[in-house]
Amino acid sequence: MKIENFSMKDYGQIIQIWKASGINVGSSDSKEEIEIVFHRNPELFLVGKIDDEIISVVIGGFDGRRGYVHHLAVSPKYQRKGYGTQLINELNERFKKMGVHKVHLFIENDNDKVINFYKKLDWEIRDDLIMMSFVPDKTLYKRNS
Questions:
Q1: What global pTM score does this model have?
Q2: Which domains occur in the chain, in start order?
Q3: Is the pLDDT of residue 12 over 80?
Q4: Region label for 31, one of left (φ > 0), alpha (ψ between -120 and 50) or beta (otherwise)
Q5: For the chain, is the Cβ count within 10 Å smaller at the N or the C terminus?
Q6: What one-character DSSP code corresponds to residue 5?
Q7: CA–CA separation, 73 vs 71, rounded Å?
Q8: What is the three-class DSSP state of 128?
Q9: Cβ atoms of residues 42 and 6 within 8 Å
């Protein structure tokens, strides 16, 4: 697999990978919203390709202190072949070069498959935190749009 930086021309393909992989695609995944995150951290938004076909994707984010992983997905027919591991390892190397001390990600608590994937890569479940969310404009955020 060849890992490259995401390009907005790839938007349709990554949405299909997310949906096929079971990721909830919401209003924050619209083309306009993805373009915003892409321009914020272009070097952390990665795709994996085999023969010019995008088979995997991950959005990395950096807020100046911590790194974040969003929407890591591998096309179902390529899962369980090490491509997700390759992609997250590349992202982690980029975080390391940026001086990131800690990286966070969010997984829905009933997604055992993804939880186990990250556990095998030495990620730790935190039980000392509670995630909370606030939606300042309910007309903007819509889950599963």
A1: 0.89
A2: 2-120 (3.40.630.30)
A3: yes
A4: alpha
A5: C
A6: E
A7: 6
A8: coil
A9: yes
